[in-house]
C-alpha cells in the first residue's frame, strides 16, 4: 500500500494500560486520539483496586525488571514512587503510580473515556470503524488500535484425567498469598517468571513443592530451597498419583497450581476479522497491523520482552504508517508477508502458541521496526542497562532483585 500524507485521522485506542498510554502519547502528536478504558483509572493490569482478585497480580509481586529498564524511553521512573523495601524492582502500586504520572506528563487523561465497556468493533466501510459501547452511543473512527493486554484470560492446559481426579487445580491468576498451601504438597506447572516466583513463595509454607516444566536450568533457581524438587510436565492425573512426561509418577499431591500463562482475547472483534489459533494471532504484519485492513492495529502482543519501550517503538512505527512516512505494500502483499512469517514459525520445532514470544529476538525485532520507519535508535543507556541486568540474572538467578545495580548505568536524567 502506498501511503500519501493524509488528513488528521480520528483514532480509537482500546485500553489505557501501558500499551494504550504509549500508543496515545505517540499518535496524539499527529492524529486525534480517544482512549476507551473499562476501569475508572489508567494503568490496566497494574491496577489492584479489587484487592488482587480477578487480576494476574498478587501482593508480593515485584517486577522482574528494574525500574530504570522498565520505564518508557522518554520518561524515567521517578524514584520516589517506589517504596524503599522494593528496592530497584517496583511492585504493582509503584508501576500504577508511574503510569498515572506518564499519563499526566503527556496530558492524556482528558482524552480517556473511563468506565467504557467496548462490546463490538466492526468496519463500516473501507475507511471507517464503528465502536459500540455497552452504555453509551456508538462512535465512528478512522482507525482502531487495540491495547487490551493479554493477562486476563488464563491459559489452562487440559491434563488428561483432570475431571476424574479429586485434585484441586487453580491458576496463578487465582493466587494471592501462600497461606492456602500451608503444610501441603503442591505441584506447580510452569517455568517462566511467575512459575519461579510462586514456587519460591509457596515453598515458605508448603511441605513440598514439585516444580514441573520442560525448561532447563530450573534447579539453579531453587538450590536454596530444600523442599522444592524439579520434574517434567504432567501428562495424566490419576486418583492416587500424577504421571509425568517420560513415565515418572508423583504421589500424594494435594494441589496443582498452573503457571501456564494467558491467552489472547478480543471479545469485541468478530472471528471473521481476526483469527486466534493456539494463541497465535493470524494475519498481522510485524505483530502490529492487520494486513487485510491496515487501519486496525495491535500494540503489545509480543511477550518475554522489555514491555514499555517495546510498546513505544511499536507505536512510533505505527505512527509512521498512519502519517505516510512509512510506505507499506498493498494489502495482498502484506497478507502474503504475514502468512510467510507464520509459516516460518510453524516450520520450526517451536509450538504455534509461541509465535509472539520474542525473548532473545526482541532486539532484532525492534531494530527492524526502527530501521524500516527511520526512527531514533535505541539509546545506549537502554542497551547498557539490558546487558547489566542480563549479567546479574545469570550470576544471581535466585536473588537478582537483591543485587545492587551499577550506579552509572542506571543514573536517570530528568524527564524531557
Give the helix/strand layout.
Layout: E1 10-14, H1 18-27, E2 32-36, H2 67-70, H3 92-105, E3 112-113, E4 118-123, E5 129-133, E6 139-141, E7 143-146, E8 153-154, E9 168-171, E10 185-189, H4 193-202, E11 208-212, E12 228-231, E13 234-237, E14 241-244, E15 249-251, E16 255-258, E17 262-263, E18 276-277, E19 280-281, E20 284-285, E21 289-290, E22 296-298, H5 307-323, H6 331-346, H7 362-372, H8 380-395
Parallel strand pairs: 1-2, 1-7, 2-3, 7-22, 9-16, 10-11, 10-16, 11-12
Antiparallel strand pairs: 4-5, 5-6, 8-17, 13-14, 14-15, 18-19, 20-21
Helix pairs in contact: 1-5, 5-7
Oligomer: single chain
The total count of helices amounts to 8
Give the helix proportion (percent range). Answer: 10-25%
Main sheet characteristics = 5 strands, parallel
Description:
- The chain has helices at 18-27, 67-70, 92-105, 193-202, 307-323, 331-346, 362-372, 380-395, and strands at 10-14, 32-36, 112-113, 118-123, 129-133, 139-141, 143-146, 153-154, 168-171, 185-189, 208-212, 228-231, 234-237, 241-244, 249-251, 255-258, 262-263, 276-277, 280-281, 284-285, 289-290, 296-298.
- By secondary structure, it is of the alpha/beta class.
- The strands form seven sheets. Strands 3-2-1-7-22 form a five-stranded parallel β-sheet, with helices on one face. The chain has a five-stranded parallel β-sheet with strand order 9-16-10-11-12, covered by helices on one side. A three-stranded antiparallel β-sheet has the order 4-5-6, with no helix packed on it.
- Helix 1 runs parallel beside helix 5 (307-323) and helix 5 packs parallel to helix 7 (362-372).
- The model has no long low-confidence stretch (mean pLDDT 92).
